[in-house]
């Protein structure tokens, strides 16, 4: 009644008069406007007209720079999303004072095989005393103990409560009574629903349900009494309670057998004493509530139909018979589908419907029956109004938003923009106070849109007016504005609120699949929009996308999620600036934490891995092609290395069938050729990316940044005086081997990148027997695992190649001679290697060897060494270190071992020393290893080449050479027999090894 009297408009005008006093004022008014906003919210939740909504927008526009604009927007959001908005648009209002509906009786008892009752109800108050509530809770607790269920309120009731005390007023939901005062009644005992029945023998029984109903909350209530006759004559009786379409509770309850005709059918009350002489001892118990359409069925309708009725809502006025027609006048597929489902439901329930009373049909003191028999005039059962029953009509907030203007909920978006360009009408930043004020309204506006978009009219308006593109532009403007103003950079709370609201827009769209795909592609999957947010906000976005894969994988597939995420990864999470690269975290080109960037790349690849895993096997080839194309085109080493590890995880996953599918897709889609291209790129890069490693932990190492096509610096040359190498140089090379060269903590778009090594990284890095142990910082910025290494691509290639070989997907052919491959790194590959060489795998091994030789200081690191050695002995994993002390380690893939041995002469001395020690241990620990080493065609050439490369320190290495030869059972006389070889004999003579 307050809404119909126009009270909301009065409150809005009062709010405008009060809140505008704060505009341009330094001092805040002393009067608190929060209760006024709460009253506005409560009234608008019940009913909001278009005129009042327009006035609401005007108030917020005039108070946009005050603290009350966000309060008014939050009030509108709660009005749109509140529980009152769930109710029907037209309802009966029972005032609790001798009010209700009294339907006509019947010449017989209509409920012989059970019954069903359903309606929408909003209980204003239960009008119970303390004793009533205590007694009701005690009875419900006892009923719960019998049924095995419990509720919070019934469990808290006092066990000593008297069951009959203070129960005089128990508002009736309905009463079906015969002429002898027998029948069925449903009433509320405090907040619990009770169903009571009595038969002609004078017996009465009741069932107390355990669900505590809340006042001032809309419910769809369904009651169903099922009576089935058994094969041996025993009946199965069951009473069911449905709440909001779901079966909440089912209790055994004997169905009453009544022979007398139906005398009273009351809704919201029981028969008044003046009408029924048999009820003189019982006062009238009316209901203080609003009630929607009332359906009474002659038989049970089942859970499925109850759920469909609840889903349809209380606004629909059913049509039955031939006059119902067909739902062909629909504006879109969603409306058409709703109309068809409603028509089908009406056809199914029409035969078992006894009476239907709809509020919109009430005229004067009578409400006609809208059931098939009543509408056809076969049986006239109009309901008479008892006391005062008003009809409440209202307009929901989402309907008012749709009717306000073209675009529906998009009419809210101008409130989030501080200024627009006069010619292009593009949003642009205004004054800082105004920009912050408007940006603070963005999250509530997006949440309102997420709820309003489920309305068919709003859904159609957003789809027709290109809503996703408009939302994308405004979201981009908002995030740039917040970034430039530095708002929320400390905790990112405002950006995080925006992420949650945008995610809700995409997830709450349930009826228009094409619109949902557009929303995903323009809002969530476009990383360019979110690049200016903090690390935590971007990680939350990617984590949300990972969660959505399990429920929205088809939508993300149709939105081309994988390609969009990879493109966004290349443009936003770069380490080498490209022409279309975009600054992340800041518009000012500030220092970019590399640990955070790589952590975001890892999080993004988790989303892609989940997408690939959720796809059917038939899409494996397309997904692998997408990843291979990205690796070939992308110059970002940090991203390519991680994609290689992603493919490795797909190939070695526990599901053997899926692993084989991805391995075959990788090989069949040009994976070997792609690895050749990557190795060619690594070989051409050389050693110029190696930074100068300082000896102090607190000194920073700078890295020269270059464009993808720039050659960068030169390869570090060796000393001019080769014979004057000192122990200092050996120590430096050992550092280059043990440390990871490219470990930049922070990098900038400028030419120089500096890094300060964290204390935890330098203090806790340990190495014990080939097992690497590291304790890193907890956050992504200082996490040592997030630092980019120059050897990441080669490590990924070795791991992937080893996995494919170990599982039998690749087999080694004949070795490729150096003459055949002399032009491999001098020209581009022809036909991806397929038309030039017969054995691609042998060519790949040769390319790996040449890449290691071309960049020994950059690529011959601990990670590469462990990966090669682990692949040679077929270790399950080298991520946590390789345990060489395991006696089961033996050489299985000698071709991979040959790559390591042939690259040793070009490796740093620390690399050579570590390799010789480990090979010595493996040869001594397993006879088969020693046999395989000595029977290789390359024995002993590779070890001699190692000594040739270190001839200036021959004395220190000669001892290792003698020891190694002795342990592998290779006598020195055999070495002397090799003197006929020109190069071997020349080397021995020059160094006076053979006297």
TrEMBL record:
Residues 687-746 are annotated as: Disordered. Residues 379-684 form the DUF4704 domain. Coiled coil: none annotated. Residues 687-699, 724-738 have a biased composition (Basic and acidic residues). This is DUF4704 domain-containing protein. InterPro entries: BEACH_Domain, ConA-like_dom_sf, NBEA/BDCP_DUF4704. It comes from the Eukaryota.
């Amino acid at each position: 009644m307050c809404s119909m009297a126009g009270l909301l408009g009065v409150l809005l005008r009062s709010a405008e008069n009060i809140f505008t006093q704060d505009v341009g004022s330094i001092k805040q008014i002393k009067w608190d406007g929060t209760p006024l906003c709460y009253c506005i919210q409560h009234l608008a939740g019940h009913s909001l007209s278009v005129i009042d909504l327009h006035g609401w927008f005007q108030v917020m526009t005039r108070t946009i720079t005050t603290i009350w604009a966000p309060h008014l927007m939050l009030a509108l959001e709660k009005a749109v999303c509140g529980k009152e908005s769930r109710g029907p648009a037209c309802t009966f209002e029972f005032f609790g004072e001798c009010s209700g509906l009294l339907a006509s009786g019947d010449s017989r008892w209509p409920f012989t095989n059970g019954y069903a009752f359903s309606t929408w109800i909003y209980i204003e108050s239960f009008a119970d005393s303390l004793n009533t509530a205590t007694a009701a809770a005690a009875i419900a607790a006892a009923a719960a103990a019998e049924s095995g269920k419990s509720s919070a309120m019934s469990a808290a009731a006092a066990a000593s409560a008297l069951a009959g005390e203070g129960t005089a007023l128990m508002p009736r939901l309905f009463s079906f009574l015969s002429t002898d005062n027998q029948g069925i009644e449903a009433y509320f005992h405090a907040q619990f629903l009770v169903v009571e029945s009595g038969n002609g023998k004078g017996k009465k029984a009741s069932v107390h349900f355990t669900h505590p109903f809340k006042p001032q909350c809309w419910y769809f209530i369904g009651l169903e009494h099922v009576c089935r006759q058994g094969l041996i004559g025993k009946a199965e009786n069951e009473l069911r309670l449905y709440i909001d379409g779901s079966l909440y509770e089912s209790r055994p309850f004997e169905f009453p057998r009544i022979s007398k005709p139906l005398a009273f059918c009351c809704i919201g009350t029981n028969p008044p004493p003046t009408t029924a002489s048999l009820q003189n001892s019982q006062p009238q118990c009316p209901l203080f509530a609003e009630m929607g359409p009332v359906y009474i069925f002659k038989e049970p309708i089942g859970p499925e139909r109850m759920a469909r009725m609840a889903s349809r809502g209380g606004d629909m006025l059913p049509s039955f018979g031939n006059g119902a027609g067909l739902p062909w006048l629909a504006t879109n597929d969603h409306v058409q589908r709703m109309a068809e489902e409603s028509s089908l439901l009406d056809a199914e329930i029409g035969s078992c419907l006894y009476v239907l009373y709809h509020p919109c049909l009430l005229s004067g003191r009578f409400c006609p029956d809208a059931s098939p028999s009543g509408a056809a005039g076969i049986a006239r059962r109009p309901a008479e109004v008892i006391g005062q029953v008003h009809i409440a009509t209202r307009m929901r907030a989402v309907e008012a938003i749709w009717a306000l203007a073209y675009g529906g909920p998009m009419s809210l978006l101008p409130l989030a923009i501080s200024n627009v360009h006069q010619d292009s009408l593009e949003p642009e930043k205004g004054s800082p106070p105004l920009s912050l004020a408007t940006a603070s309204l963005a999250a509530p506006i997006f949440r309102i849109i997420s709820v309003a978009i489920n309305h068919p009219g709003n859904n159609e308006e957003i789809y027709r007016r290109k809503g996703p593109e408009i939302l994308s532009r405004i979201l981009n403007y908002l995030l740039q504005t917040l970034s430039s103003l530095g708002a929320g950079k400390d905790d990112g709370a405002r950006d995080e609120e925006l992420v949650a609201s945008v995610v809700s827009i995409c997830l709450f769209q349930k009826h228009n699949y094409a619109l949902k795909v557009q929303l995903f592609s323009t809002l969530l999957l476009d990383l360019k929009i979110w690049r200016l947010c903090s690390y935590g906000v971007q990680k939350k976005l990617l984590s949300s996308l990972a969660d959505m894969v399990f429920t929205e994988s088809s939508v993300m597939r149709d939105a081309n999620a994988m390609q969009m995420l990879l493109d966004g990864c290349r443009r936003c999470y770069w380490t080498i600036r490209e022409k279309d690269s975009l600054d992340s975290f800041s518009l000012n080109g500030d220092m970019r934490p590399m640990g955070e960037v790589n952590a975001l790349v890892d999080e993004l690849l988790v989303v892609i891995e989940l997408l690939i895993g959720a796809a059917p096997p038939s899409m494996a080839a397309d997904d692998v092609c997408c990843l291979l194309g990205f690796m070939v085109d992308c110059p970002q080493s940090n991203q390519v290395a991680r994609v290689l590890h992603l493919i490795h995880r797909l190939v070695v996953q526990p599901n053997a069938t899926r692993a084989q599918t991805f391995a075959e897709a990788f090989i069949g889609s040009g994976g070997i050729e792609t690895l050749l291209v990557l190795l060619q790129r690594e070989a051409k890069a050389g050693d110029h990316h190696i930074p100068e490693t300082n000896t102090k932990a607190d000194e920073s190492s700078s890295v020269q940044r270059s464009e993808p096509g720039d050659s960068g610096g030169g390869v570090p040359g060796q000393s001019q005086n080769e014979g004057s190498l000192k122990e200092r140089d050996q120590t430096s090379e050992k550092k280059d081997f043990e440390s990871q060269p490219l470990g930049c903590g922070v990098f900038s778009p400028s030419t120089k990148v500096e890094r300060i090594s964290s204390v935890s990284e330098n203090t806790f890095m340990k190495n014990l027997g080939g097992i690497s142990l590291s304790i890193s910082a907890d956050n992504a910025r200082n996490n040592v695992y997030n630092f980019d290494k120059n050897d990441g691509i080669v490590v990924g290639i070795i791991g992937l190649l080893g996995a494919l070989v170990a599982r039998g997907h690749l087999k080694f052919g004949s070795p490729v001679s150096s003459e055949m491959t002399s032009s491999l790194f001098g020209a581009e590959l022809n036909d991806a290697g397929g038309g030039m060489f017969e054995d691609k795998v042998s060519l790949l091994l040769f390319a790996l060897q040449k890449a290691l030789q071309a960049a020994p200081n950059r690529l011959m690191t601990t990670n590469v060494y462990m990966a090669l050695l682990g692949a040679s002995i077929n270790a399950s994993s080298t991520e946590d270190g390789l345990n060489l002390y395991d006696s089961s380690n033996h050489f299985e893939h000698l071709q991979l071992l040959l790559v390591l041995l042939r690259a040793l002469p070009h490796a740093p001395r620390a690399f050579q020393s570590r390799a010789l020690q480990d090979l010595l241990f493996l040869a001594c620990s397993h006879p088969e290893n020693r046999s395989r080493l000595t029977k290789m065609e390359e024995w002993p050439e590779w070890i001699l080449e190692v000594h040739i490369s270190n001839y200036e320190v021959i004395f220190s290495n000669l001892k290792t050479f003698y020891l190694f030869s002795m342990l592998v059972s290779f006598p020195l006389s055999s070495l002397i027999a090799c003197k006929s070889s020109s190069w071997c004999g020349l080397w021995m003579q020059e160094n006076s090894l053979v006297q």
